[in-house]
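User: Predict the structure for this protein chain, please.
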Amino acid sequence: MTGNTIDAASAARDTPRREQLLRILAGTTFLIFFQAYMVAPLLPRLAVIFNAPVETVAYMVPAFLIAYGVATLFYGILSDRIGRRTIMIASLSAFILLTALTGFAQSAQQLTIARLVTGLGASGVVPLGLALIGDLFPYKERGRPLGWLFGAMAGGMAVGSTVGVMLEPFISWRGLFFAVAALAFIMLLKLLPYRDLLTGPGSGASLTLGTVFKGYRALLGSARGRRTYGYVLLNAVFHSGVFTWLGVYFSRKYALGELGIGLALLGYGIPGFLLGPVIGRLADRYGRSRLIPLGLMLAGSCAAALSLDLPLLAPVLLVTLLSLGYDLTQPLLAGIVTDLGPNRGQAMGLNVFTLFVGFGGGSLLFGSLLGKGIDVALNVFGAVAILAGILAAFLLRSEMHK
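Assistant: Here is the predicted structure, written as structure tokens:
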């Protein structure tokens, strides 16, 4: 192993197992994002079940996302020193246990606390899986495997936000959490035979406050680092803000029930699920500087268009295109992050921290604008994303294929 990347001979020798591990990580990622996004469309239903305002019940969304993001800061740093394996397996085990326990919540407050604790425990799987891609694949080949993982995220978002709300009347919201926990346990059993590939760099260096801050200074000390993390944050705020409230949007604007909301959101995540590896290959071949601005402007335009009075089919299609905008941005920004420095776990930990704090903050910010009307909130978020896309065409022009 050279630096943080497996040498060419080792990579070639382990290629079949490396690909199998990639599929297992993708499946695990799918489940984690399934449970993360099956909650938002259920907000109107959960508000009725717990006899609480939807704005109060909605706190469970940022509770999970912000806790998830904060915890990744610690997991990423630790994994650079003791390796990925221990943290990933322990975190996946915590996810299984805490997801199952969430199904026993008896109030909106208990559910919010359970989501917060689950976020803290579960956040050592996907971020370190992304860092592991940097360990196992050279930079010029990372687009495809990163595309698989982000495609799994998108698929989890799509299926979680649709199938979850559609299954709830039949198995209850508690049954959804129990089912996810059971499936995640199966993925843990599948992961264990590949734990030798989860070792990562494991430098064994002592962990001090000084070394931690030195690592962050290195990541944020360059214009490239600040620019990349800035766009990760902005993109996360935008997409989470819009997506979290789509269930409320369809409920208020089109008077849809749970099943209708699930069907309306069916297209969200499908482009990434189907096209994630393809988009990754395009980024490897043509560069991220062209695709990221396109994704931002596309997503912003879709959000603004949702504010119009359109037949129901139109916003359903716009939701699908909104998802494509995410697929053209966040996975490609993650690819840049894997190239920012030698401490890839810390770099990816900061990336996911930024991403999930943006997710949580976005849902709160969009909610704070609802007093002025959901159409106003959509237009504000859309305008900011379009402007960010225009600026990205200039700011990210150096992010060509390396």
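Residues 143-191 form the longest helix (49 residues).
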